Amino acid sequence: MLIRSAPDIRSSEITDESLYWNRRKFIGASAGAALAALMPVAPSVRPKRQDEKLTSYDDVTGYNNFYEFGVAKDDPKRNAHTLRTRPWTVAVEGEVHKPKVFDIDEILKKHPSEERVYRLRCVEAWSMVIPWMGFSLSSLLKEVEPTSQAKYVQFVTLHDPEQMPGQRRAVLPWPYMEGLRLDEAMHPLTILATGLYGEVLPNQNGAPIRLVVPWKYGFKSIKSIVMIRLTEQEPPTSWNQVLPHEYGFYANVNPDVDHPRWSQKRERRLGRFRKQETLLFNGYADQVSHLYAGMDLARYY
Ligand code: MTE
């Protein structure tokens, strides 16, 4: 996201779906009851474009943005082992009738994860197709009963420079923060992800729990969440704080609204050579455009 020359994207092999399904069968057969209970298999939500192949496991878990572990794409995989994901709690508070500090295992038990295959389009113009395991954020928010004052939802990542060495450098104001309007947060496409490729979420992808909002640029999908706060006012967000003219609160994928320093018309799918057209709302327009009816998307970028 900072000024880095576009790195060469490895033309690594694309994971063939059959290979993935074999892998899932293997996981089901071998990993035992614990993982099965954690990740019940449910029907997947397939992306619209039929030609899409899943991005390889190696790219999904080896080409990351997680500045708490370094700013290079291969830093998080190398460095994120210092993150301790147990014990872990997520406080859900603010404009709610039943604020609560949840233990992560309580969340996993109460909200079974299902597979959701989503496109992830990074603001840096690369993209992936990822088989997440997760559940709709709305089910967790309903549990704490938002008040009538709740209009927005703020998300906060763990702040611990000992576990997250990148936080010792002032590349961003720490902890990483993100936000959504309440109706965006309640949308069924918005998930809290707890795994990918049928496995527990690797640390570099935001373990033990991260947000995924598939119609917005990837930076909205905040990782390793410890707090979710419902608010009346629009909450501050990290990238908007450092570069407000480049990163807005909404951050909807939009090929017609260029980033001030580059075009957003096209994207490079990891594992592919040719660039492809970027679609409005990352291809999810039929499901989400009603959220922005009457809004000037160039102004609310
Ligand atoms: N969350 C935190 N806490 N820190 C980060 O640096 N990077 C964001 C987002 N979530 C980031 C974060 C960006 S810019 C992107 S593109 C996605 O995570 C990348 O998710 P992935 O590495 O799982 O593909």
Condensed summary:
This protein has 9 helices and 12 strands.
Mean pLDDT: 89
Helix content: 10-25%
The rounded Rg comes to: 18 Å
Q: Tell me what the CATH architecture is.
A: Alpha-Beta Complex
The total of helices stands at: 9
In total, how many beta strands?
12
Task: Provide the low-confidence segments as ranges.
Answer: 3-18, 25-43
- State the end-to-end distance: 16 Å
Kindly report the name of the CATH homologous superfamily: Oxidoreductase, molybdopterin-binding domain
User: By helix and strand content, what is the structural category?
Assistant: alpha+beta
C-alpha geometry: globular
* Percent in strands: 15-25%
Top-tier CATH class: Alpha Beta
Helix-strand topology string: HHHHEEHEEHEEHEEEEHEEH
